[in-house]
Sequence to fold (89 residues):
Amino acid sequence: MSHIVTVQDAVTAFADWIEPTGAELDAIEEEMPLILADVDLLDAQITTLDRAPSELDARRIRRARRRVLAARAALANRTATASLPGGAA
Fold:
């Protein structure tokens, strides 16, 4: 029995364009607070999947949701101010 593999994986496995560019890494770094807040929210939600959430669980989920909203607002404000040419008059 022979294994079937794609040739493209062998050809492109070490291509230079597969690595993220500096701009992509900067974008990821800028979004990292939001990513971490989303992970915290998912973690809080996952802990309540197999049981009824307690008051402590509900508080943890609310707190995580507030962190996600704050991180999204901060990211939106940073991108909005960064994309405006000149300054506010």
